Amino acid sequence: MPPEQPDCQSSGLDIGINITSTSRYTLAILGRQGHIRFDDPGISPLHCSFELHKDNREEVMLQDRSLDNSTQVLGPTAMPFNPGQPHRRVLIDREINLQFGIGGAAHDLYQFQIRWHDQRNDNGVGNPSHALTIAHEPPTSVSCLPFARIRYSNREPLGSGAFGEVWKVANVDTGEHLALKRMRRSHNHFDEYSSLKREVDILSRVSHMLKALDCLANEGMIHRDVKPENILFTPLSSGDYLYQLADFGLANMAANAQTYAGTEPYMAPEVYSGSGQPQTVKMDIWSLFVTAAYAMNAAGYRRKPRRSLEQVLKAVGEAAMWPRLQMFQEMASENPDDRATAGDMLDKVFHGRGRTTS
């Protein structure tokens, strides 16, 4: 309890995977009928809970389940519940939302100070015999209001480039991990904005193509001719674009693909060299990386000689070290055994969104 209330009783609650729960994502529920119980009519049967984010399983959310919305974060680190969200939940970590209260008109009938253990454990696996028969919470198709300002908490730097830094952050309202680019100020704002917008458009294209190639890989198919001309786009009402992979004339099942196929500037080394190595879905990954390197002119890629395999490998290797493509450098490994799959890159860069393969 706060020091200004010396007559109030103070005690601690140990919350973590030591509490048995029917849901693998629920760490603890506070309430008259929760894991931690309060014999007080001012507290709802299930008043609030601590939840692991179901996708990244790293972030912890405080969720208000009370009947009267009487859970609230308090104190100088508070980033309160966003009224525009479909669920009353908010991120808690070592920097923000370190105090909260429950019950009462001022949400302070019981107050808590959050202290984090240094030791971290994997989340527990739910008991199959306790499987839920209904959704843990009402389904919704809306995660954020359109054009809403995103509140975030920093996690770690991912890289830096000519125009700024990229950070991994956690969305305070959803717990999702995001990549945030911080621009460096200069006098040439328009050129920086245009360059950033072009970069975002290309990364969006890469995301869509990785989803398409992962879907093909799930069916054991190779496209064999990924290049800029075979990536079509459709404008959407939101102002974004839907990118689609086209021209499957050279596509084949991986088990049957043997012929020399593709467009040389984008062709994987194992095909370009004619070494007779088995063709796999990873040849499409190389081609997609080269497509991105060409579109972004990574490290001056377009002006470099690429008439021989040695020249291609040198140009692609330099593009892979370019700051804004470093996150994709596993796609540019010369040896296909070391090259990432589409699913690998969806996991690494886009948090697994759109992955089909297991």
TrEMBL record:
Q: What class of enzyme is it?
A: transferase
What Gene3D superfamilies has UniProt attached to this entry?
Transferase(Phosphotransferase) domain 1 (1.10.510.10)
Composition skew (Basic and acidic residues), residue ranges: 336-350
- Name all Protein kinase domain ranges: 1-351
Give the EC number(s) listed in the UniProt record: 2.7.12.2
Extract the ranges annotated as region (Disordered).
336-358
Q: Which molecular-function annotations from GO does this UniProt entry contain?
A: ATP binding; MAP kinase kinase activity; protein serine/threonine kinase activity
Write out the catalysed reaction.
Answer: L-seryl-[protein] + ATP = O-phospho-L-seryl-[protein] + ADP + H(+); L-tyrosyl-[protein] + ATP = O-phospho-L-tyrosyl-[protein] + ADP + H(+); L-threonyl-[protein] + ATP = O-phospho-L-threonyl-[protein] + ADP + H(+)
What InterPro entries does this protein map onto? Kinase-like_dom_sf (IPR011009), Prot_kinase_dom (IPR000719), Protein_kinase_ATP_BS (IPR017441), Ser/Thr_kinase_AS (IPR008271)
Q: Which PANTHER family match?
A: DUAL SPECIFICITY MITOGEN-ACTIVATED PROTEIN KINASE KINASE 5, DUAL SPECIFICITY MITOGEN-ACTIVATED PROTEIN KINASE KINASE 5-RELATED
Question: Per its record, how is this protein called by name?
Answer: mitogen-activated protein kinase kinase
The species this protein was found in: Fusarium solani
